[in-house]
Amino acid sequence: MRILGVDPALAVTGYGIIDVIRQRISLIHAGAIITSHSQTLPERLLKIYERILKIILEYRPEVMVLEKVYVHHHHQTTAFLLGQARGTICLACAQGKIPLVEYAATRVKKAIVGKGLASKIQVQRMVATTLGLKTLPRYMDVTDALALAIAYSNIARSDTYRNTQ
Question: Which of 30, 40, 80, 157 is the most buried (most CB within 10 A)?
Fold first, then answer.
């Protein structure tokens, strides 16, 4: 199974693609989509949309995994901007005709580290260990995207095991 994890944001959107074959996870491709504050909002959203759609069409994942939005009342404007970036990513997913799965950050952390309140550093280390990375990605957003993909793999395997018992 090929899984695309995406950590959406307006400035740095991380993405990671993994293959899972017989419980073995391999990194296919990962990176970040960087937009500039000097670009207009529509230009930034267009860049995110076009890059995600290109990744979907080039790598043909079977599923895309996004993190659910958590909105803190002190950061409502940030949440609205994030929502717009997520919307363009969801549109690319629909145009690429692949299913979309969303997980809360705590569920991802539990699937990766075993604790829903794990730190970003703990998640980053576990992702690096799981994928055998010698160097960590420059952006934590890339690690978060890979964590989403790995979490989907772990959760799907757990669900399959439970259903066969």
Answer: 30
